[in-house]
Sequence to fold (91 residues):
Amino acid sequence: MKRIHVYIRGRVQGVFFRAATRMAATNLKLTGWVRNMDDGRVEAVFEGEDSDMEKMIAWCKVGPPSARVEEITTAEEQYTGGFHDFNIKHL
Fold:
């Protein structure tokens, strides 16, 4: 099991990025959260199986059709198992 913290930069707000991320993560049975940041990026934390995590990171590099991802930064963190589902956080 793995935990990845992700920051996504580009045209990623106002294009249903969070909702699409939630759907993709749920389909992969990942847990965690996603939110918009004040600086225009999207931030997410994913927990789950290694192989599913790789698929999710690949998805984040593209995003939904209306998004334009310019950069993605990832950091592996200590897996906690503290999430029960995948949620959209609001500022």
Summary: The chain is about 25% helix and 40% strand. The first helix runs from residue 17 to 27.
